[in-house]
Amino acid sequence: MEPVRGTTPKVVKSDEEWREELTPVEYAVLRQAGTEPAWTGEYTETKTRGVYVCRACGAELFRSETKFESNCGWPSFYTPSDADHVILREDLSHGTRRTEVLCATCHSHLGHVFEGEGYQTPTDQRYCINSVSMRLLPEGE
To answer: Boundaries of each MsrB domain copy (predicted)?
Structure first.
């Protein structure tokens, strides 16, 4: 994964350390900008209330209050829990222009954000996030 220009992650680990700590699927998504297959993620349809944190470093990313049903096959949120919790960068891979979403703390790949799709959300944005890139901490635990 190429570094984010102009920023240094707060959590820095070698490639070997990431490989030791993450499963092969987690590593492929978080560190190599992969995508889990649609409708396979554990959080795609969950309605459990709580906080979603980065699976690589534990930093807070999203809250269940901003999760919505987009029927796209991945968990969707209309905003991160705080704008400073994610980094957005242009992604020109796969012959298209998209906006990649990264964890601001460790610069791991989370997914992509899309705008103007007509969802009735306060931001008109859809943060399309891989389940494998997050961990849900349920309310009250």
So the answer is: 15-139
Tens-digit pLDDT profile for residues 105-118: 999 999 999 998 98
Cβ–Cβ under 8 Å, residues 100 and 33 = yes
Domain regions of the chain by residue span: 15-44+51-138
State pLDDT tens for residues 33-47: 999 999 999 999 999
Distance, CA of 34 to CA of 78 (rounded, Å): 21
- Which residues are known to be catalytic? 128
Q: What's the predicted TM-score (pTM) here?
A: 0.91
Laid out side by side, the sheet with 76-77 consists of: 67-68, 76-77, 125-129, 109-115, 98-103, 86-91
Q: What fold characterizes domain 15-44+51-138?
A: 2.170.150
